[in-house]
Amino acid sequence: MPKNPLTPLTRGLARGGARLAHAAVQTGRRWVRQAGTVTAEHPGRLRFGALGDGTRIAYPQGTIFGEPWIRVGAFCIIAEQVTLTAGLMPDLDLGPDPILHIGDGVVLGRGSHVIADTTVTIGDNCYFGPYVYVTSTNHSYDDPHEPIGRQWPRTDPVSIGPGCWIGTGAVILPGARIGRNVVVGAGSVVRGTVPDHAVVAGAPARVVRRWTEEEGWQPPLRTPPPVPLPEDVTPGQLRALAAWEAESSG
């Protein structure tokens, strides 16, 4: 039985159409993400108490309300689906002072939540992995006869010092006071006070390593510190090195 001469042509057209559709979808997606990004120059419907130069809140955004009481510093990166809230619910008058203060150079990973029903402060140059949860509010369960979700919550301010790294999935509970340059391990649950230059991990989180001026790191670090790149290395040299490594590993 003779083959249909249009079959190869039809298949070719189908493949070409699929490629065009794919390219159109990807181009449209990039355009939507760029157009939906919130910046100081293009805040959209959001009216933050402050939104610093160079800061970008990626699209799609998570839940955001109480933005007049949210102040975000300069050169921050807030990833997709990050929730930022000030107050227990939208449309409250929270007074003259900010409730949620995010410093300069902060990175909030995808899907993170920062819930500020009372004051939450995140210091400069803090980096959050994805799905970090920070809250200044906790449910009450004092009355054994009332559903927990209907009991009035307790609030306690939260502060995270500058230079911290908060690992993926960490939970920062009300009343946490985290010092400067602290590492919070992935999945940790932090409450109470954490000293400067500490590494904490676990649920509840405990100090597993700490640096002091007198003793250095205790317990001692098991690996040598990374060697920084020379200051005169150019982006072109880095790209050439990456290409060489890819060829070598292939």
TrEMBL record:
One Gene Ontology MF term: O-acyltransferase activity
Assigned GO CC terms: cytosol
SUPFAM superfamilies reported for this sequence: Trimeric LpxA-like enzymes
Keyword entries, A-Z: Acyltransferase, Repeat, Transferase
Residue ranges the record marks as coiled coil: none
Protein known as: Acyltransferase
First and last residue of the signal peptide: none
Family named by the database record: Belongs to the transferase hexapeptide repeat family.
A Pfam match: Hexapep
PANTHER family membership: ACETYLTRANSFERASE C18B11.09C-RELATED, SIALIC ACID SYNTHASE-RELATED
Presence of keyword Acyltransferase: yes
InterPro entries in the cross-refs: Hexapep, Hexapep_transf_CS, Hexapeptide_acetyltransf, Trimer_LpxA-like_sf
Superkingdom, natural source: Bacteria
Region (Disordered): 215-234
